[in-house]
Amino acid sequence: MTSGITLQALRRHRWAFLGPAATQTIAATVISAAIMAARSMDTAPLTKPQRHSLISPDVGAMNGVFIGSSVYMSILLVGVAMNLVISRQTRDIALLRAVGATPARIRRSAALQAAIVALPSSALGYGLGTLAGNAWISALRSHDILPPQVTFHPDLLALPIVAGIELATSVLGSLVAAIRPARVRPARALTDSATGRPRIGVFRTLLGVLLLAGGVVLAGLISKLDAKNAGDAAFFVMLALCVGVGLLGPILLRAIVGLARPLATALGGSGTATIAADNIAVLSRPLSGALVPLVLAIGFAIVKVSMHTTAAHITGTADAATDVWLDYAGTSVYCVFAASAALNTLITVMAGRRRALAVTRLAGADRPRILGIVGVEAAIVLGTALALAIGVGMVTLAPMLHAQFHTWLPYMPPSYLFAGILLTGVVVVGGMLVPAALLSRRRPIEVVMAVE
Predict the structure, then answer these.
(1) In 148-163, which positions are buried (b, 16+ CB within 10 angstroms) versus exposed (e)?
(2) If residue 331 lies in a helix (H) or strand (E), which one and from where to where?
(3) Please, where are the H alpha helices in 200-320?
(4) Domain boundaries, the chain
């Protein structure tokens, strides 16, 4: 029965699985590239001094950091992506529960769905990882970080390692995502499916508040540590804050909509802005899945970039070019990873709204009006993500700056701020407005008749 449920879910919601598949592919790419790059460095014909130079600087540990970070980000982001996929199966799961399917069977089906998607994603990620690993080794050589003797060599042994990691992280993420849908009563699940606005549990709310409060308290404690220990502990501050934001995402989105609704009413009454605010309130739970990777990407970039720019601003001396390049290269990898997960989440949400958009058009809204509504929705999501990410970044960054430079305020060049806002806007617009433009090209009556 489990396999039948799984195959039916894969067929019925096949487009929704593109998000988890893309996230798993990116994770497999980073992990396989790091494994093969490390293997290439280990087997390179180097002298003892050259070998020591690979171990002592950051490049010697960077591959391990890439692998470890990719593993925990895969658990977190695949969990977010699978949560969205499973939320689209709420009605199906409720009907299955009503006819006798047990919560354990539902959880096993969710795990099997993630595993089926993980296997081809791992293979594709391994292929892309060979290209990425070769590019990484070449970049390190071009910056004189690696000697010319180090060349990239693909390693087939990396494939089963990557597949094993992806299977484990994907299954774990899907099991976490399936906890609530598998336990909720069928009648309540059907109600949530009909309204499109499932309730946020008390446990989830309390855990989110606890993580946010714990992150702030930990940030205050590490401000008294030395610079190195403060930097190491800051990672846990950001992780706690990002997970807390994810858990409280629906509540935060609704709160921001509540604050923005009076302004929308003053500007347009019951017009575009007000409709967009109401839509965000209804879609707060699925859209909150995009907040975790967005906040993670922006917050991580704020911390990494601000440490270098603030150091140069205070001391008047820029950090070593090699260290800056390595730090920014690693930051770019994490940001691309997280931004891709956010983009996939937003696209999946918009794809699930194609019938609702078509019904709105049948009710009298023309295509420009639809795009205007989605544009305002994108602006609300963008503003929320930026505000939360700046808060997370500042709470994480402040104790590190105090420990190293005895200041609480970072310095960020305006051009860097503009670039960050622009890139975040590209992700949000690409995930919301572009799909809406493509979905609204089809005649609305055809969409309504085609979608069950």
Answers:
(1) eebebebbeebbebbb
(2) helix 321-351
(3) 202-222, 227-247, 249-268, 272-282, 284-315
(4) 1-198, 200-452
Cα gap 339→422, rounded to integer Å: 13
With vertex at residue 286, the alpha carbon angle to CA 282 and CA 292, rounded to the nearest 5 degrees, is: 130
List, in sequence order, the alpha helices (H) in 248-283.
249-268, 272-282
DSSP string, 333-363: HHHHHHHHHHHHHHHHHHHTTHHHHHHHHHT
How is residue 15 annotated by DSSP? Answer: G
Question: Nearest CA to 114 among 26, 193, 178, 69?
Answer: 178
| Residue 322 pLDDT grade (very low, low, confident, very high; cuts 50, 70, 90) | confident
Q: What mean pLDDT is predicted for residues 412-432?
A: 92
Q: Judge whether 159 and 122 are in contact, CB under 8 Å.
A: yes
Hey, CA dihedral for 406, 408, 414, 419, is it positive or negative?
positive
Indicate the burial class of 451 (C-beta count within 10 angstroms; 0-12, 13-18, 19 or more): exposed
Count CB-CB contacts under 10 A for residue 333.
Answer: 21
pTM to 2 decimal places: 0.83
C-alpha 132/C-alpha 63 separation (Å) is 13
**Please, which pLDDT band fits residue 62 given cuts at 50, 70 and 90?**
low
Q: How far apart are CA 260 and CA 279, in angstroms?
A: 13
Of 318, 328, 333, 322, nearest in space to 146 by CA: 322
How far is it, in rounded angstroms, from Cα 334 to Cα 24?
A: 14
Residue (of 381, 210, 410) closest to 307 by Cα position: 410
Instruction: Give residue-wise pLDDT tens across range 208-253.
Output: 899 889 888 888 887 777 766 666 677 778 878 888 888 888 888 8
Assess contact for 274 and 265: CB atoms under 8 A.
Answer: yes
